[in-house]
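Methods: holo model generation. Sequences were used as deposited, without trimming of termini or removal of tags, and paired with ligand SMILES retrieved from the corresponding compound records. Each pair was processed once, and we did not select among multiple samples. The sequence and zinc ion SMILES for this entry were:
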Amino acid sequence: MRGARKICGLMTDHIYLFMGIQGSGKGTQADRLSKDLSIPHISTGDIFRAVMKEDSPLGDELRRILNSGALVPDELTSRMVRERLAKPDAAPGFILDGYPRTQGQVEHLDAMLTEQGRSIHAVFFFDLPEEETVARLEPRRICTRDQSHIYHLVNKPPKVDGICDIDGAPLKQRDDDKPEAIRKRVEEYKRETLPLLDIYRARNLVRRIDATLSMDAVTEEVLDIAKE
Ligand SMILES: [Zn+2]
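and the model returned the structure below.
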């Protein structure tokens, strides 16, 4: 019975929610846990991108909403998550990253899991102070020719100041990485995510992870908790 374990006579699933702001390392940690437990790392960003490419009524609906600049309604996001969770690779468990993001989505997720007789094993909260978030994101520079060429003035500086090592194009800072934009995202994140953490805290599911620690130290802690 891969992916399910017996604890105090109850079967528990490898179902984890990952919450944390951009720069907290949660995506990397989700990938690592995903490999270790052989369960999929499911992010709403990836689901949206996949559905956008589909020639299906759902694909049409999502394209129409995103092209109009509107927010994707909870109902539709939850429908896409439900379809993704029904795929066979998610049977032993899964990591949800970027979902739920609203109280409505928490309720949808509860309903889905209850229907299937499944439950959340832990909600990982990757806690990173605002100053540290800015310090991690602000030094990023990207290549003006190829956006996949990414540098970091502290951790991965280019050989020549302001110039891409690969193709010699000038580097720039994305608007999203400017301190004001980062602070705005931090505020949005606090407004959206902190109330959800309270909901899960009341269920004793939240495990706070100190995201200022090294990637490897964080991985060790995440694996320990996942295997409890
Ligand atoms: Zn480049």
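The beta strands are 4-7, 10-20, 41-43, 93-97, 122-127, 140-143, 150-152, 171-172, 206-210.
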